[in-house]
Design a protein that fits this description.
single chain, about 130 residues, mainly alpha, Arc Repressor Mutant, subunit A, two-stranded antiparallel sheet, about 50% helix
Length: about 130
């Protein structure tokens, strides 16, 4: 929710869980985007949606299989969450079928004053973003 790095469980074993939380300041732009969306909807975003948004923020462009791998959400649930994020205007899809990938939407970049970041993702002329 605050745009921080994910917790690290990599040193966990079958007998114990080791959790490492890296100290990091909140990403104000991500926090603002999520807060605005939650205010618009009148409820909190589901945890799966937050995980998907975080994965897209970190990786920039992902297909549903990779989203599923990164977030540990089944592909069916990931698809349903991504569709809801597309309807909300937070995510955009490009391509078709197995070549379909997802990126954060122009709306997200615009609200974060980063239209250039969106153009880098899509290869679209900046005039289309404004």
């Amino acid at each position: 929710m605050y745009g921080r790095l994910w917790p690290d469980y990599s040193e966990s074993t079958q007998r114990c869980v080791k959790l490492f939380l890296q100290r990091a300041k909140a990403d104000i732009a991500v926090t603002k985007m999520i807060s605005n969306e939650e205010n618009r909807k009148g409820r909190s975003l589901p945890i799966n949606s937050l995980l998907i948004l975080s994965a897209l923020q970190n990786e920039r462009r992902l297909d549903i299989h990779r989203i599923s791998q990164i977030t540990n959400i089944s592909e069916n649930r990931a698809k349903a969450n991504v569709e809801n994020l597309i309807e909300s205007g937070l995510v955009e899809a490009t391509g078709n079928g197995k070549n379909k990938t997802y990126i954060l939407s122009a709306k997200v970049y615009r609200e974060n004053d980063n239209s250039v970041g969106y153009v880098r993702q899509t290869g679209v002329d900046t005039k289309l973003v404004k």
